[in-house]
Design brief:
The chain has eleven helices and nine strands. By secondary structure, it is α+β, with helices and mostly antiparallel strands. The chain has two domains: about 120 residues, no CATH class; about 140 residues, RRM (RNA recognition motif) domain (Alpha-Beta Plaits). The longest helix is centred in the middle third of the chain and has 30 residues.
Length: about 350
Amino acid sequence: MSAPIICELCLGDSPDIRVTKIPNGADCKICTLPFTVFHFKKDPRSSTIIRTIACERCAKQRNVCQCCMLDLAWHISIDERDQIISLIKGHEVKTREAQNEMMKRFVALKNGNAKLGGAEVTGDRDQLAQVMAQLEETLTRESEQKEDATNNLKRGSSNLGSTSITHIWKDLPMSETFSSENCAGVQSFFLFGIDTSIPEWQIDSTIADIVGDENWKQTPSTSLIVNHKATCGGIKFKSQLLSDKFVKELISRGCLTRGGKTKGILEVLRFRVFVLPWRQGFKITSFGRNIKENIKLRNALQAKISSNSFNLVTEGDSPGGKKLAKSAAANKHKRVGKKNKKSKRVSNLEL
């Protein structure tokens, strides 16, 4: 029999593994065609049974493990692998999946053992070695740039007097207001007040939870930009429907209104990030072209946030704040009442 395509992480290192084969045991998670299922235990004493969930054909096409569906070379998801290779190659590399069942089967049978997307790279030893060399060079260069940027940050903003951010500030939507009417037809938004400890993926995940769609961004990688040095960034939704859902949800959670202007509040972890509609959109250089502009923009935004017009919202100031405050007070009263009640005990109870 042909051996299943299973990575070393799923297979484990036990020398005594018993694999059970079930012909046509399930439908492939990718192409939906019936396939031969293999299941086993990493260790004979383990109670966890590991099964193959994708057929051998689909696994070969994508160069992934039949069990965990991670890339065999890098042990990461298909999307993450394709994104990394796209950054290195300088053009989009994507494993395109069919949407309906008939097309899924057609693609699987038509392509045979041909590699799809990033599998052409990670599935070929020579191309993989070349990409790994390019990746190492890129990481080394970025590490050096990060070290230089850190040194500049340590020196502070004492030498920023000659740096001008007028060309950046005039394009920022600082005078906009966050409301249903003002956000109509807008798909891009400005985020500021981003704590440096918040990773970009966390913002991505938080927005995905709000709109209920993991693929909320447009195809280009510039649909989500977070510049931690400037403590700001931008997001762009792939559709107006998702954008409207995002606005509606943030408004329902409560916004900040000061000086006649309203700012949306995006809660990420324990931090609050301010949100404004960005009609003209943004690009990478919208947050500064160098470290000096980044720092000066950060200082300007922090000054804005600390001013009276950008004070953090309180429970009573938000649309749902009074309800939250009353609810909290009621819960507190209930807790106090419960403490005052003495529990009754039954003594000498025979069982």
